[in-house]
Amino acid sequence: MIGWTGTASHAITLSNIVEGVTEHGYSNHLARLYTHIGESRGFTDGDSPRTPLPQHDLACDYMVSNFTAWGYDTWLDPFEFDVNFTYDNDSNSYHYADCNNVVATKWGSGGTNVFLLIAHYDSVDSGHRNVTMGPGADDGASGVAAQLTIAEAIKDYVFKDTIVFVACDAEEKDYQGSIYFRNNHVTENPAETNATTFLKSAIRACVNLDTIAYDDTNNVPQVVIGTLSGWNPVVTAVSSAMSKYTELTPRFKTGYDSSDHISFANIGIDSIHVIEYDFSDYWGDGFTPNPNYHSDFDAIDAPNYLKFDYAAEVTKGIAGALCEYATPIPPATLMETVGSNAVTVSWICAPNVDYRLYGACNLASNDWTFIQDIPATGMVTELRVELDLACVTQTMFKVIGE
Fold it and tell me: 284 — alpha (psi -120 to 50), left (phi > 0) or beta?
């Protein structure tokens, strides 16, 4: 006889994960992304081909080394492109080469959903008006620092669904990196999916972080959750997480058409753009917008500029939303008791997680035999599986959450 029961238990919260996002951790990553005055993650500005400046590739290396060390499936996504700019008197077309998106995947355990967290790591450069060496600390290293901080905070947790971090290149060149990733790594054909190509219908949300580290302290701390056009369910999920995990007030606005989220919104994926409230005077409240946007002083060491506590709060909210979406699976600590007629295996389960129970006679052979599926309960509960002693042959057990 095999059976299982459940009883109410203490809730498993996400607070321990979200609390892993700290102001110190965030500012440390931002400082290591070559965000000081005189630094740049842009491209050369001469004749074609235009190629990355040295600190562009050093920042890329920093991301790859960290994602890899934390156990993510990490890879570079190389591309090149032609683009025409009209800056001042220059209206020529240029070829850009040696570009790379950085992709890091935390594969889910049993789930089929995919969640994209994107940001861009290139900065404006001397090919832009009024810029000599744009450090791009806020635009857009602030979003990449959030990606790294979240990835570090969740690295030791298992999730039901898959989380993909994409640090896009060439956002400042008309979103070329996100367009390339979308065109080459998102498919509508299930037969084309693999370790680097994701099914469009499985992508439940795309969250774009761009310019999230400036806050005018004269205003109540707020964060904008914007879309290209209209409302979508991701707005509600992230707004709720901001209210739950931070002291920030979320504000919704549509019509945000100037960042990497539009590459995914344009093909029907629910996408949002998370941005500092004080980026620009969209609201008519009379505040002073970001004074260093697209300038040589968008830098971590510009006096009285970036607010790391604010950026860390935004990052906490995104971490909370991402974890709620992907569903962390806590380790199942098994308790085994033997009665006169049955052996009982019990553990605390996570909500919305299916489990599979296995048994073995000895660990040396690593020969685990499937015993039973236990479907998701929709709540935190203590599960008990009773195995008839007259039938069971195994002496050791394990469960795997899916």
Answer: left
124's CB contacts (< 8 A; 6+ apart) are: 42, 131, 134, 136, 139, 172, 294, 298
pLDDT in tens, the chain (402 residues): 345 454 444 444 677 889 999 999 999 999 999 999 999 999 998 889 999 999 999 999 999 999 999 999 999 999 999 988 765 556 778 999 999 999 999 999 888 999 999 999 999 998 776 688 889 999 999 999 999 999 999 998 889 999 999 999 999 999 999 999 999 999 999 999 999 999 999 999 999 999 999 998 777 889 999 999 999 999 999 999 999 999 999 999 999 999 999 999 999 999 999 999 998 766 666 666 899 999 999 999 999 999 999 999 999 999 999 999 998 887 777 787 888 788 888 877 777 788 888 888 876 667 888 888 888 887 777 888 888 887 777 778 888 887
Q: Which of 188, 269, 280 is nearest to 228 (CA)?
A: 269
| Burial of 398: CB neighbours in 10 Å, binned 0-12, 13-18, 19+ | middle
User: What size, in residues, is the chain?
Assistant: 402
Fold of 15-328: Aminopeptidase (3.40.630)
In whole angstroms, how far apart are CA 278 and each of 42, 125, 235, 239, 305?
A: 24, 23, 19, 17, 12
Helix ranges (H only) for 115-207 are 142-154, 176-185
Tell me the whole-structure pTM to 2 decimals.
0.86
